[in-house]
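retry 2 of 3: previous attempt timed out while embedding histidyl-adenosine monophosphate. Reduced batch size to 1 and resubmitted. Inputs unchanged:
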Amino acid sequence: MIQRPRGTADILPAEAAKYRYIEQKAREIAALYGFSEIRFPTFESTELFFRGVGDGTDIVQKEMYTFADKEGRSLTLRPEGTASLARAVVENGLYGGNMPLKYYYVINCFRYEVPQSGRSREFTQFGMELYGAPLPAADVSVISAAYRIAEALRIKATVNLNSIGCRNCRPVYLAKLREYYEARRDRLCDTCRERLGVNAMRLLDCKEPECRALAAEAPKISDCLCDECKAHFSATVRGLERAGIRYRIDPNTVRGLDYYTKTVFELIADDGSGAAAVLGGGGRYDGMIGELGGPELGGIGFAVGLSRLALAMPDGEAKEEKPALYVAPMGERAAEEAAVICEKLRSLGIACETDLVGRSLKAQMKYADKSGFGYTAVIGDSELDSGKCVLRSMADGCETETAISDIPDTLVKLLAAE
Ligand code: HAM
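retry 2 succeeded.
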């Protein structure tokens, strides 16, 4: 038997309903903040991620699904959305008109990672990006939107917040940090020793016990921020405080992508553990649009992972709407009429089904019960002759007589009274 590739998932109907619910809530939040949906390609020129995400990142170095097409062009399945969207903004000249730009997206992403709970090789992100909004209020509104998505799904979460400075103050900090770690090189894990020359800040979020102990004592970026970054960060913190967002300032939140400047944050599930607890992450990236050939237009955004939100959501939160009516025909003539009745009901927006298998009445009732129909109606010759039938509640067995032509009105009344 051919099996699905490692790290991918078949999302079966019950789980798919959860995803749909999450997506719908996230879309509602995005609309409340004035963001519009944007869609972009699943694969891009590999070069985009080298320049946009950064060639020093794990994503670009180890995790991309890169292939040559039939013309020999190097293409990559998107590992995330921020670089693609920045490309789309530049390519479509979206920055000419009404600023700031506010977009959201729901995309499948691909990363060659070691699969574990909350970490797969294909996953779905919901992301929001805001361009041309330099004020700390922009940081506050984007962080709030991420937090409100968790809140709408009744997930208790906290924002881990940090500033990683700008191109003026970060080099000073990086030099200090490198010096600190170089002096303790022999205590570092292999990965950190490797990373030290590439991106010393990533050492701060290593999960190895010895590296964690070193990170706790390492120089703090907050001591090196320039005046502008300091003011930006404290205004952001003040804004979050006033918005009632639960946050904690965490000097070791540095993010795994190269493009961030100033504010970075992660949304952490209070009850979660490991990778799955990190529901989402984001931050400001003021250089990317310029790097991709556009104007110097700052950006800030975040993405949350749908599978992680689904894991963190309380059970029963995403209730699937039950189908309203099962029409059980008795006999051939009734079966033909039942199909017509169902078509008419559907045209009025009522979800209904009839027999497609040729089952006995008893077996049809069993099917209707298992499938969670709210009501059943048995239609035989006498019902067709009288033009009347009985709607039977599957919950309590209550029966309501109705003209067949009045089924929609009667059902609406019954459902409203529940
Ligand atoms: P990221 O932290 O790499 O950031 O991913 C964001 C979220 O996507 C994660 O917090 C997680 O929920 C989900 N995610 C990432 N990798 C996986 C995986 N292998 N399996 C399941 N879920 C995963 C970004 O991608 C940035 N583009 C976010 C951003 C937007 N920054 C600014 N704007």
